[in-house]
């Protein structure tokens, strides 16, 4: 049976993993390669790295870090943040990442999804989206608007329409990162995740808000997520991946048990 | 020395790094002569079967591949590298493949809209026949899969592992003489995947 994936998210800044709330007040947590190895050995199913300051600092992604991670862990990992064009995608994939995660860039240039999918395969192209809750209206039938640039800029795009469009362009997966839930550890935004997952044919990864094992159970059952990204709940040492997996297994969620 | 065939069907970095991490020397080549001299061959690939076959044709690699398989050089197909070993694929209408293993490659079909296609993630492999590549690997271990098409193996004797997805039970691993093939990605399947690659590296074909 296909299992639900647990994906630790490592926000990287100056080659250090950091964690903030809604992109603010970041504290340093450790070395990205060492943390990747620890989580991979601990049983995570995949990893995602965001170079959180590459865009703002207008510098290329830290490709040397990608190379070191690829040498050290042999599970899939995605890299995002600071990817500006097809050449950046190629560089990250050739360095050994399984997937690239693109977000703000695709709103400015949706065709990059199609180009990337054609050149590297849909499975390499992850659409990251940061929807914020808004009043339901003719403009926003889903009740969520896409934001970009670390939640700072509203786009006028409806979240569900954007998800369907990205699927049509060739995205292989969608990471739905709730702006409202991000960093709160108060639970994933279940309704948002379910709405996207029920209306696209590609896997949906829930992100933002995971704080307890019950939150994960909820997002995999009610939220119909195919995978979930977690950060604080494991970065703080409050839970191990093994503990989380034991609890989810006991709750009847299909989970990878041997690693 | 592990020779990886580079036929422009996807990124070979992770396959190379996985073999290097278990202490193997790796050569990546699209040169027929080097392939004919190889001790062990890995035939990876992602993407579409038709593009893979077109590339094999334009690089003149079809005959060398047939020859090394016939000569009994240990050979491991991965993902698209497994699919093109069959007779044909439903991908792009109908794609003629190498025809080394009897059977065809079919698209997942399901009416369950929550069952996403492609299959992306870790799924269980039921070992249906013991094979050297599974030495020391527990039955029903999970491996990492990314695919929309699956091998329908018509000679049941060639099936060594099975996986279930979208209502189909398919051959996720096949073995025939000196040839082994897997639909999943051992290079992305953590410690258990590396164990499979190590087993292949130590396999003399018996």
Task: Outline the structure in words.
The complex is a heterodimer of chains A (259) and B (206). Chain A is α/β, with parallel strands linked by helices. Chain A has one domain (5-250): Aldolase class I (TIM Barrel, Alpha-Beta Barrel). Chain A contains ten helices and twelve strands. Chain A has an eight-stranded parallel beta barrel with strand order 1-4-5-6-7-10-11-12, surrounded by six helices. In chain A, helix 1 packs parallel to helix 2 (63-72). The longest helix of chain A is centred in the first third of the chain and has 11 residues, at 32-42. The model of chain A has no long low-confidence stretch (mean pLDDT 94). With 206 residues, chain B is of the alpha/beta class. Chain B has a single domain (2-202), classed as Class I glutamine amidotransferase (GATase) domain (Rossmann fold), CATH 3.40.50.880. Chain B is built from six helices and 13 strands. Chain B has helices at residues 13-21, 32-36, 49-58, 62-71, 80-83, 190-202, and strands at residues 2-5, 26-29, 40-43, 75-78, 88-89, 95-96, 103-107, 119-127, 141-147, 149-153, 159-165, 168-176, 179-182. Chain B has a nine-stranded mixed β-sheet. In chain B, strands 6-5-7-10 form a four-stranded mixed β-sheet, covered by helices on one side. In chain B, strand 5 (88-89) and strand 6 (95-96) form a beta hairpin. Chain B starts with a strand and ends with a helix. The interface between A and B is large, with 36 and 37 residues.
């Amino acid at each position: 049976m296909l299992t639900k994936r647990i994906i630790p998210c490592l926000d990287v800044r100056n080659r250090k993993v950091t964690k903030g709330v809604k992109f603010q007040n970041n504290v340093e947590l450790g070395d990205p390669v060492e943390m990747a190895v620890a989580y991979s050995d601990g049983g995570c199913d995949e990893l995602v790295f965001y170079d959180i300051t590459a865009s703002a600092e207008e510098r290329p992604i830290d490709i040397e870090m990608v190379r070191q991670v690829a040498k050290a862990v042999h599970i899939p990992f995605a890299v995002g943040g600071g990817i500006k064009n097809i050449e950046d995608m190629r560089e990250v994939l050739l360095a050994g990442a399984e997937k690239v995660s693109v977000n703000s860039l695709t709103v400015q240039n949706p065709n990059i999804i199609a180009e990337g999918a054609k050149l590297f395969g849909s499975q390499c192209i992850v659409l990251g989206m940061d929807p914020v809750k808004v009043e339901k209206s003719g403009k926003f039938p889903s009740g969520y608007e896409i934001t970009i640039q670390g939640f700072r800029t509203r786009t006028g795009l409806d979240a569900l329409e954007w998800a369907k469009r990205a699927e049509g362009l060739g995205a292989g997966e969608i990471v739905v990162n709730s702006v409202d839930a991000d960093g709160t550890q108060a639970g994933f935004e279940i309704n948002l995740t379910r709405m996207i997952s029920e209306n696209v044919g590609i896997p949906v990864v829930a992100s933002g808000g995971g704080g307890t094992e019950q939150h994960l159970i909820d997002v995999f059952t009610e939220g119909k997520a195919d995978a979930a990204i977690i950060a604080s709940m494991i970065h703080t040492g409050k839970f191990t991946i093994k503990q989380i997996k034991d609890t989810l297994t006991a709750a009847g969620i299909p989970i990878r048990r041997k690693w | 020395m592990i020779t990886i065939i580079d036929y422009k069907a996807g990124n070979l970095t992770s396959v190379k790094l996985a073999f290097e991490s278990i202490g193997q020397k790796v050569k990546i080549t699209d040169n027929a002569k080097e392939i004919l001299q190889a001790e062990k061959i890995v035939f990876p690939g992602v993407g579409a079967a038709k593009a893979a076959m077109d590339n094999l044709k334009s690089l003149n690699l079809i005959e060398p591949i047939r020859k090394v398989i016939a000569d009994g050089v240990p050979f491991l197909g991965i993902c698209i590298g497994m699919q093109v070993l069959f007779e044909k694929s439903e991908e792009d209408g109908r794609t003629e493949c190498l025809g080394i293993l009897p059977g065809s490659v079919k698209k997942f079909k399901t009416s369950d809209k929550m069952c996403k296609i492609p299959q992306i993630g870790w799924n269980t492999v039921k070992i249906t026949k013991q094979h050297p590549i599974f030495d020391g690997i527990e039955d029903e271990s999970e491996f990492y899969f990314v695919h929309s098409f699956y091998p329908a193996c018509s000679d049941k004797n060639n099936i060594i592992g099975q996986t279930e997805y979208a209502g189909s039970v398919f051959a996720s691993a096949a073995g025939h003489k000196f040839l082994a093939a897997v639909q999943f990605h051992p290079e992305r399947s953590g410690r258990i995947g590396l164990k499979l690659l190590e087993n292949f590296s130590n396999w003399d074909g018996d």
